[in-house]
Amino acid sequence: MTGFPAGSRARIALAVTAAAGLTLVVSGCGGSSGSSKSADGTVTITVNDMPAKTDPVNRKIFLDDVAAFEKLNPKIKVTPHEGQMDPQTFSTKLAGGQLENAFYVYYTDPAGLIAKHQAADITPYLSKFPAVNQVKPELRKVFQDDKGHTYGLPEGNYSMGLVYNRALFKQAGLDPDRPPTTWDEVRADAKKIAALGKGYVGYGDYSKSNTGGWHFTAEMYSRGGDVAKQQSDGTWKADFDNATGRAVLQQLHDMRWTDGSMGQRQLLEWADLLQMMGAGKLGMYLATSDNIPTIAAQYKGDPKDYGLGPIPGGKGTLAGGGGFMFNPKDTPEQIKAAMAWITFKYENPDRIELGAQRAAQAKQPVGLPEPNIWTGAAAQAKTAADTKYANVPVANYAPFQKTIAGIPLVLEPPKAQQIYAVLDTVMAKVLTDKNADAGSLLSNASKQVDSLLAAQ
């Protein structure tokens, strides 16, 4: 676990410390692509997730970690590749013997790979890696089938919250330590911020380049709804043409057209809200914690001005992240070697503090509430390390930190990006047409999404 936002894929490798306890000498015959066994019994494994040459600092640290791991495990040779798993080429790489022994996937991928038997069952080897038990159960479950068998290991996570401008809250007479926790409170606070004057926007939302559908999904989850629901026969159907979907759109309609608290400019995409927040003109929007250092670094905002609260409604929060799965053609020796590498680099509680130290030295953000895959003693170690080496205003994120454990994490739907593209149209219409028919929009979008899901 690197301690950096999963959404940004930022990487800082962690220093070697008491990781000697993870040493695992293995031997055995080769069998999967890209793997071999030398005459002395050394097992060679291929792994991905190495930073690109365009990121030389993190690439060097990654390779330094490879060298450190190999020193601890002289019978394992790691051959790293750039990139992560690409759903468009995965089956071809697997069939052609080009798939790595351990490969990075997003949380939307494991269920499909498990169902198609395209990942190795690592259940028999988990007892050799006890640190895995300190990873959050809900994240481990992402890599499990309905019988409880495990096919992968989490690396990072994120969930949606409410990024807000503490400075504007103060100017509007709101308490910056108490961000809104319901959608009614969001609407009331947004009106007060917009009333500060021309150019101020109380609440911002997306409606372009799949970001509108992404936020619609997050807002559905926050109210306890779904966007797609799995049926008893295993198929999926759209699940937003209902009262919850209409409530989401009514909220946006009222803030946009009745209150005027969302501003005139619409059809916004990802960078637009960050830029508005950096310029001090936006009160709040839904986002992950890694948006805050990006606002500061790329859009010249003052980090002290930004807070993070829980997602309004609190009945569910869109969550994501990723981890590693293992080639189904791997031999047991290759699986154990690959698991040793993954746990050494990404799931080692003993390296948490030194990881935070190295991150701070590299001027990467330390102290954001996520990613945080840990429970128990490891979670306490992360909190202590974040406090010791924090270079962000940790206290500003306390409202999020205090509540996130009680909010269910809900993963993105199947075919998420295609669904988001459909739902962009719904968001765009409501935010640009005062007389948009929400019922008709949801009905038409539901039919399109059903067609997408039927084609899985």
Automatic annotation (TrEMBL):
Coiled-coil region list: none
Family annotation (InterPro entries): Bact_solute-bd_prot1, SBP
Gene3D superfamilies, sorted: Periplasmic binding protein-like II
Name this protein carries in UniProt: ABC-type glycerol-3-phosphate transport system, substrate-binding protein
Organism expressing this protein natively: Actinacidiphila alni
Phylogenetic classification of the source organism: Bacteria, Bacillati, Actinomycetota, Actinomycetes, Kitasatosporales
